[in-house]
Amino acid sequence: MTLDVTVWNENVHERESESVAERYPDGIHGAIAEGIETQLSDVSVRTATLEEPDHGLDEATLEGTDVLVWWSHCANDEVSDAVADRVVDRVHEGMGFVPVHSGKNSKPFKRLMGTTCNIKYRHGGDTERVWVSDPGHPIADGLPESFEIPETEMYGEPYDVPEPDRTVFVSWFEGGEVFRSGICYRRGRGRIFAFRPGHEEYPILFQEEVRQVLANAVRWAAPTEGAEAVYGEVDPSHRRDD
Amino acid sequence: MTLDVTVWNENVHERESESVAERYPDGIHGAIAEGIETQLSDVSVRTATLEEPDHGLDEATLEGTDVLVWWSHCANDEVSDAVADRVVDRVHEGMGFVPVHSGKNSKPFKRLMGTTCNIKYRHGGDTERVWVSDPGHPIADGLPESFEIPETEMYGEPYDVPEPDRTVFVSWFEGGEVFRSGICYRRGRGRIFAFRPGHEEYPILFQEEVRQVLANAVRWAAPTEGAEAVYGEVDPSHRRDD
Amino acid sequence: MTLDVTVWNENVHERESESVAERYPDGIHGAIAEGIETQLSDVSVRTATLEEPDHGLDEATLEGTDVLVWWSHCANDEVSDAVADRVVDRVHEGMGFVPVHSGKNSKPFKRLMGTTCNIKYRHGGDTERVWVSDPGHPIADGLPESFEIPETEMYGEPYDVPEPDRTVFVSWFEGGEVFRSGICYRRGRGRIFAFRPGHEEYPILFQEEVRQVLANAVRWAAPTEGAEAVYGEVDPSHRRDD
Amino acid sequence: MTLDVTVWNENVHERESESVAERYPDGIHGAIAEGIETQLSDVSVRTATLEEPDHGLDEATLEGTDVLVWWSHCANDEVSDAVADRVVDRVHEGMGFVPVHSGKNSKPFKRLMGTTCNIKYRHGGDTERVWVSDPGHPIADGLPESFEIPETEMYGEPYDVPEPDRTVFVSWFEGGEVFRSGICYRRGRGRIFAFRPGHEEYPILFQEEVRQVLANAVRWAAPTEGAEAVYGEVDPSHRRDD
């Protein structure tokens, strides 16, 4: 069964910064999509960006999406409320959602979390070591106990999110900070995995381990069948004369 | 130290239905406030309703509120987005929030949960038995192992909320349904307890055990000091030459 | 890839009670095994019982087991500490563990939980309605929103277990009680699902929905690859001159 | 209301190592007890050690203990099974339990967790920075956003414990590792807080922030009243002719 993945990217840094454009010639979405396609055989990946009508996330596209991977940063506020709500609704129905890096500031993620999602941060190329804190989790499949990202933007605790269902990764930064870099949630029928690495100033989304994590996350976040659910006004389920 | 409690009520049924007005002559907010004042000695309780300017929840009032108890039902959509966001922001800062009965459909609760909060329901006066599923929880302090509500509106599973941090009560209904009737969360620094009982068609908010639960919840949800938190851009915490 | 399932049963009631023997002519283990084989195509099921050497759970058998389904009741104390620890160790390594009914009182389950696992109970044939409280969970795949067990032994809250990772089912009983009937945990790399239904005095383990749940649980609890994990004394991961 | 705290220490390093004896002239238990007494006014602290009869933890002592703080390391195996089980039973009844440093390897903690509690470690005096990851938690009351322990033994992830109810602290180590240094659980009615810092080779248990955390933990882990709980065989709670 083919998994339908949509990789969404605001695609702004690529158009405004020459260095980002050189680093990610097919856009950050292109790099993420390529990584998923390389890692998974039974997957169909499309991309969508902010500038498209409906940001490329019209109802039919979302309806046909099993897992939405989301990269955003400077243009989070330009995403329309209607599209953000549409994404949230689809997550409730079962679509997986994988915000990457500052996608944690996106409207859909913040609406799904109900918190500010605030962090501390620092530019300047800290080395990051991403530790697997939950080696039994499927999103860690096939990984070493830790991997290094040579240079990145730092994110530091506290991370103002609800206590995660599972904390799969915790990062160490050269400058002295730590961060829960891979955290899992469910909202309605939808699985959510927020992954920290992926800054636009470094070629992180080409790194092998990062691609492995994202591929694992796509598989983990895929919708499952589940049970029937009935909401609204109902008659009694049990009667005295049953 | 006095705890500042605000009891908010949409106060619509009381004005539109004679029978509700007779049952709750001081409004549902009045009955809840009286119950809390009776149970707790070190508390200052005020009330606020939908019809007041800012729904009675201007910034100064919320700033001075330790715990907000919230009853709403038919007028959830009439609460302004601005006030709903203000409540959410104050919860993030540490204010306790206790939605009662269909307060689970209020804008603040749904924004804090990130889910639909859907349920099934039935009018008609089912008997409900509220079981303590977590007898070690402070919100269950002083309660028997279960208590009966002779007649009520039924709420049934599935309850579309995030997996609770703690499930304190689970209800049994005569007609064959069950419901997680008392569930705990934290969002930011704020504690949230959603309590199911409290339908306007029955004198439930005068019942002793219900008042005990609400008083316990107010104490439990009160803000605590916590630690400093720094967000935004920062210098390294550790330097090689430290 | 074939899933290796071992169904363990104390197999005492079947030998001591004529009515149980008639109801479960191949033993409760036989009924469970048949149900799993009927529901899943890619599975190899063996059975083991208390009376066998090592209770049929020698190291090689456990090593070759992906998921252990466990039924026990009156002979929980006769399981040797060594075998109980061996089961616990294998769960830590990744083996799934599915205690059924009073298997919740088994040594392995209690050691994995760290609590008493106490409940209240009643014989006498209550009707039970099992509600899906988490319709998005894979253990609920394909189920209606609830199903009825016409007659059973009642289990009632409080259920003295750690707050579950996920609560998939909550049961309603005719006599007025409720119970968290399907709860999920992880310990080490191993997935645990404790399922309430399955009393020996009724043909519950032949019931279609029960078999569906157990098959779903076996698939859900199957080991996954995971990441490398290094324990013990280590050299620094990061050096100043890196 | 006075809180009765017992500080337990194996008290072996102090007797076998001159440098530890000099660093902790009143024993590690003495240093912990002094810290708690200094921080909390309404507390009565006693100490107990391995060498005493019943390890100083006879039934009357445990019965009279609200919170048990536990330090152990090299002699974890010398604690008798009977005393370990007695501690576990008291936690189930409501006694708070605060294992410090390698107290995470103690029999009571491992029995309460149901996992191996394995970690990686390194001697040699890494600098540790303890970050508050949950600034709204009462165990973090009054703390800065992080504090430094100049020299310590390192503990590194993965930490083989059940996913914590709350993760209050996450540590950064100079050598490149991270660790969930303060984690909360409940088992039965008892609250558990496992705190990482506290190695015998450094004067960590005299450090102000460490003492603040332990005092906060003692207050947080104190028993609360809770509700009645009935276990065992029961009559129906609801009757048709009620």
TrEMBL record, chains A, B, C, D:
Residues 5-221 form the ThuA-like domain. Pfam families: ThuA. Signal peptide: none annotated. Gene3D superfamilies: 3.40.50.880. This is ThuA domain-containing protein. The lineage of its organism: Archaea, Methanobacteriati, Methanobacteriota, Stenosarchaea group, Halobacteria.
